[in-house]
Amino acid sequence: MPMPLKEFQTVICDGIVAQFGEVRALYRQIAAAAPDRIDEARRKDAAIVLQAPTGAGKTRMAIEVMRRLSVEERVLWFWFAPFTGLVEQSRKVLTHQAPELAMLELDADRQLDAVRGGGVFVVTWASLAARKAESRRARQRGDAGMSIDDVIAMAREQGLRIGCVVDEAHHGFQRETLARAFFCDVLKPDYALLMTATPRDTDMKAFERATGYFVGEPADWASVSRADAVDAGLLKRGVRMVRFIARDGDTAQLVDFEHLALRECVQMHRTIRKTLVGVDIALTPLMLVQVPDGKVAQEAARTYLVEQLGFDATAVRVHTAAEPDPDLLLLAQDPTVEVLIFKMAVALGFDAPRAFTLAALRGTRDPSFGVQVIGRIMRRHALLQAQMDALPVLDHGYVFLANSESQEGLLLAGAQINTLTKQAPELGTQTVVTMIGDGASLQVVRSGEPLSLLVSRAGVHVLDAEAERDAVSSADTTSEVADALVGTPFAGMANATQAALEMFGGEGAWPAQAKSVAGAFVLAQENIYRYPRRHDAPDRLRGEKLPPVSADFEAGLAAHVNFSPEVLADRYVARCRYSA
């Protein structure tokens, strides 16, 4: 039975359906008066952008729009998945949420009789617009039926509308010449719904230029706020991040920091698992480990997790494909799998609602890292969605970053995390602990705030952190813990933990259970206070943004200021007092 939509999802669907309803009325009016202008009407009014955070239910909203439009008239839909491996996932959701829509197969249903009543083809751009002939057999007439081009043309002649839903529209099909040509010259959709979690104005403008379909400005899009999805229980409230940055060119140190990031991530993972057991929720949390491309890095991570961190070999699985595929989806849903190791390339589009923690190792500086990878751990599992009073530790995602960049890469490191803060509508409030060598800093980053890397730039001396365990265990105060950790990768952790506790109203004494980042986060979250906004207070403030500096600014400044030799010589004039 289809799941009912949340209130905010219903509002969005109502708006999209109403807008497409106006387009439908326009088509009927044009068909009666000026049929030659139908293409112009499509380009001007047929496209709507649906912008929503990962996990907010874009797919369900799109299916509801398709279902309601198909009640009003016959529509032949094309659902474009970003990867072949996600086709089956999309088909399952469509079948469950809209069983009245006929599911069509490219290999078997390229016949007019099969599409006469409408239906849905779930496809990829590669299956219809690839350069290799064997990859686009659906575009050719043969024993399997007509070409899809002919099917679309004949369906349109029979009075069907053509609709398309582009999943992850930001993935950039407009850069592919053949896909763009298919969209503009063959598909020519009467209704086009472009879904995206990470919209960029440049991407949408490029789509507009390439296809001629007008998408408007961001204010014209159907947008879902992250707050709505959080309040509805679909998304966690925010993300907690810890960043370990190694010294330049020190491979041994880098490996140690990667191991440290894995150890801290595992500690957080086990804290979450224990918390779930304590509140009687039968859910096995999933830990994601993102590694660079290559089997060596994947196997090294798996070996360390099994041999050093105590996971059962069957609980740690490695996904090696370059794209999401059915195997990845099964692993993400298998409760016997506790750790999933994967590459950057598969960060897009797959569902992993069990995931709470992510350890990102070397090679993770892709600009889309902030939204697409972290988006995997921001969903709330169905077992938690009904529990709006869930413990704070279960209402956040946790990211542990090990970066090979240090001194010369410090600005790049800051820019990388600043990319996350600029996506605050996607990620929510973030608590970021940054550790470089013997320094650590903590910052709570809310919407629109930049991240400051206020840490020591001194060199890093890596020792075996495990050797200091006894000293830490016997310490009673924050200062004693800090002294015990000097010279280890944990140096500065005590002060960062204390900062977190003070920031959220915690006690000043060093608690025994806060010997790791996980403990610090748990203690900090226990002391969060929320103050609701007064009903008569504005929900937003108007700001002013200065215009960009013109190209001739410096020349204008030089022309305005007197730089003559006489004026410059005045710098050396000293006032002297003479007496007769």
UniProtKB/TrEMBL annotation:
Q: Where is the Helicase ATP-binding domain?
A: 39-217
State any single GO MF term: hydrolase activity
Q: Which InterPro entries match?
A: Helicase/UvrB_N, Helicase_ATP-bd, Helicase_Restrict-Modif_Enz, P-loop_NTPase
Q: Which PROSITE patterns match?
A: HELICASE_ATP_BIND_1
Query: Which domain of life, per UniProt?
Result: Bacteria
A single Gene Ontology CC annotation of this entry is: cytosol
Protein name, entry field: Helicase ATP-binding domain-containing protein
In its UniProt entry, the species of origin is given as Xanthomonas arboricola pv. pruni MAFF 301420
